[in-house]
């Protein structure tokens, strides 16, 4: 059986997170063939892989959104769309009425389109845009509205017009563009389609848009509605939707996913990789605080540094290690280093990419400062290494620290609000000053990981799921 994994902005160009999950999945199921359909931002990344494909990965198809800039157009056309096609596009532009993928397929995959720009250059589509503008957005400048829609919809039109690989099962790792593409491929080839949603894609895009400078004023709400609409389309197209934890499942249902489709499969780690790491011991010298993270904005290293500034001021015998890739966003790395210099923080080390298992024995307390997560593998790895964690209240972190609705083990650390560096500092200090508490929390985390978050459980779950998906007929 061949499984097409659809990725977006992750595998195989970015290390960690979803990319690690994809690699582990393929390596753990050698009896299946995999094919990667990857959506990237810039064509300069073509072939610049951060992972070595396992033998059962039989190929990759790369599509980059900046290729849109080179699209040709054959000029204005009139009366190119049927009334039904115009209504389909109106539903897409308006962003409220439920969309149906077959209708989009009929519009966007017509053979006469030489380029996605051809559809944009029809008078019919211009009339659709103008109609929605008059009904909903007449208080905005029309030119700005038109170009916003063009920027918003062209990537979707471009991707849905691309050739799609044949497979026995389509499996998307998000509900965004790759989710819609997976649904389209399943529709064309009449094969099953499933989604594993790590974080809630539409909410992550909403958070990014709210903070962005490129979307202004009411145009932010147009963009946000669009990504929620894409997520609903992906949910509707999927046969099954898997997520990593209970809270995400509830959110997916609130966003319109049929609860009967939703299943929970936690991430899992190789606990044996950390078997040589001893439990915490009481020791002389500094308390070492660690963060296993990529140095990128979504991990909010600046908040971590502000928290450590307070920790170090209250407890000078402390050190901070920031352990992870520093190549992805050089500007943010520079900002973090300027923050260290500006605040005059001592005892901070940026290690770059490292062997996590080699560094964790030095740590007394681990911290995750992210503003968005799914189910972070770094927390599970810390648990496997007998270390307690202070995390932000994002993704699955609350369930990892306190347990889900079936878990009575206890507390494996502390959870604080995102960006609340004062609360983060208080919790780090609480653990740093109390060896017995650190050791008790570490024991809870280890047992929680052993019971429900092993690699073996993760792989067995997806082996069963793929067997079941292979029996689905459309």
TrEMBL record:
Pfam families to which the protein is assigned, alphabetical: DUF3492, Glyco_trans_1_4
Keyword check for Transferase: yes
UniProt xrefs under InterPro entries: DUF3492 (IPR022622), PelF-like (IPR047691)
Keyword field: Transferase
Transmembrane segments: none
Domain DUF3492, first and last residues per copy: 1-259
Molecular function as annotated in GO: transferase activity
Source superkingdom: Bacteria
Gene3D superfamilies: Glycogen Phosphorylase B
Protein name according to UniProt: GT4 family glycosyltransferase PelF
Native species: Selenomonas bovis
């Amino acid at each position: 059986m061949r499984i097409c994994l659809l990725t977006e902005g992750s595998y195989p160009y970015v290390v960690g997170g979803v990319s690690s999950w994809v690699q582990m999945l393929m390596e753990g199921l050698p009896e299946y063939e995999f094919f990667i359909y990857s959506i990237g931002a810039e064509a300069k990344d073509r072939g610049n892989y951060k992972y070595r494909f396992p033998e059962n990965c039989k190929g990759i198809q790369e599509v980059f959104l900046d290729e849109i800039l080179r699209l040709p157009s054959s000029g204005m056309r009139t009366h190119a769309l049927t009334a039904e096609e115009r209504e389909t596009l109106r539903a897409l532009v308006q962003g409220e009425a439920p969309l149906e993928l077959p209708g989009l397929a009929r519009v966007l995959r017509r053979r006469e389109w030489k380029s996605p720009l051809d559809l944009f250059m029809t008078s019919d589509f211009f009339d659709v845009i103008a109609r929605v503008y008059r009904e909903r957005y007449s208080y905005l400048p029309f030119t700005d509205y038109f170009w916003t829609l063009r920027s918003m919809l062209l990537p979707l039109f471009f991707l849905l017009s691309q050739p799609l690989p044949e497979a026995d099962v389509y499996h998307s790792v998000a509900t965004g563009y790759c989710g819609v593409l997976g649904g389209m491929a399943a529709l064309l080839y009449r094969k099953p389609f499933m989604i594993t949603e790590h974080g809630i894609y539409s909410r992550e895009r909403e958070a990014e848009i709210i903070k962005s400078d490129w979307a202004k004023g009411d145009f932010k709400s147009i963009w946000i509605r669009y990504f929620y609409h894409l997520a609903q389309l992906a949910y509707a197209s999927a046969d099954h939707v898997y997520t990593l934890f209970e809270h995400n499942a509830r959110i997916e249902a609130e966003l319109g996913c049929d609860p009967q489709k939703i299943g929970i499969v936690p991430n899992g780690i190789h606990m044996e990789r950390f078997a040589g790491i001893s439990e915490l011991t009481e020791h002389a010298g500094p308390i070492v605080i660690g963060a296993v993270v990529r140095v990128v904005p979504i991990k909010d290293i600046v908040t971590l540094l502000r928290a450590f500034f307070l920790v170090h001021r209250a407890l000078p015998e402390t050190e901070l290690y920031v352990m992870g890739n520093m190549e992805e966003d050089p500007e943010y790395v520079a900002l973090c280093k300027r923050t260290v210099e500006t605040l005059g923080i001592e005892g901070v080390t940026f290690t770059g990419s490292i062997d996590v298992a080699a560094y964790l024995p030095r740590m007394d307390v681990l911290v995750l400062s992210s503003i968005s997560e799914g189910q972070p593998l770094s927390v599970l790895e810390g648990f496997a290494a007998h270390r307690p964690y202070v995390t932000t209240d994002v993704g699955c972190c609350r369930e990892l620290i306190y347990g889900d609705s079936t878990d009575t083990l206890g507390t494996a650390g502390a959870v604080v609000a995102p960006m609340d560096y004062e609360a983060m500092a208080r919790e780090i200090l609480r653990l740093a000053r109390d060896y017995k508490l650190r050791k008790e929390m570490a024991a809870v985390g280890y047992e929680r990981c052993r019971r429900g978050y092993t690699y073996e459980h993760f792989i067995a779950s997806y082996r069963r799921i793929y067997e079941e998906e292979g029996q689905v007929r459309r």
